[in-house]
Amino acid sequence: MYTKKTFDKKDLLKPEMMIRLYANGAFPMADEQTGEINWFMPEIRTIIPLDNYNVPRSLKKIFSQNRFEFEYDKDFLSVVKNCAARKPTWISDELIEAYLRLWAKGNIHTVETYLGGKLAGGLYGVTYRGAFFGESMFSFVPQASKAALIKLIERLDEKGFILLDVQYMTQHLKMFGAIEISFEEYASLLQSSYKKDCKFV
């Protein structure tokens, strides 16, 4: 069961409003048919514990081979557009424009995976103090987005982040140690994360 909140259209995607909504546990999704952007607050949340995550065996082998190169915040627009280039998609052009405004304020970050100098995969998410709200990932090359996720976890751990929110459980995320928690537990983690002023880069 999900709770959907509707806000005045002209204020909905202002950076300060978006950060306020994320900080309260909401996240946006656009309806592919109508383009309408709604904010959702699931009663059950999925997180990857930063002190108890898992690196799949296949990725350990890839990291040992130094197959990929990684960058942070190098090419946000390419990352978000590649995440949106699928059917169906919840990432509308209007939402991308809103993300760009957050990017300009330093509240969105990327992990990018490169192979032979070319973008092979990546992910992006929104940050507020000690919380990282994962949004989407993409991959052109097998394992590229998974490798980016491990690099994200390592970066968040290194920088002292408290929370990695990944919204909904999937088999893909379960491989990394993702767990489901109640919104009450999630809200407690939010409060703890806001006591820290973490910098992603």
Q: Descriptors for this entry?
A:
7-stranded mixed β-sheet, 3-stranded antiparallel β-sheet, 8 helices, 36% helix
Could you characterize the architecture of this molecule?
By secondary structure, the protein is an alpha+beta fold. Strand 8, helix 6 and strand 9 form a beta-alpha-beta unit. The protein has a 7-stranded mixed β-sheet with strand order 5-6-7-8-9-4-10, sandwiched between helices. A 3-stranded antiparallel β-sheet has the order 1-3-2, with helices on one face. The chain contains 8 helices and 10 strands. The chain has a single domain, classed as Leucyl/phenylalanyl-tRNA-protein transferase, C-terminal domain (Aminopeptidase, 3-Layer(aba) Sandwich).
Write the layout of secondary structure elements.
Blueprint (H helix, E strand, L loop, with lengths): L1 E4 L3 H4 L2 H9 L3 E4 L6 E6 L1 E4 L9 H8 L4 E4 L3 H9 L8 H12 L3 E8 L2 E11 L2 E9 L4 H16 L3 E5 L3 H4 L4 E4 H11 L8
Parallel strand pairs: 8-9
Antiparallel strand pairs: 1-3, 2-3, 4-9, 4-10, 5-6, 6-7, 7-8
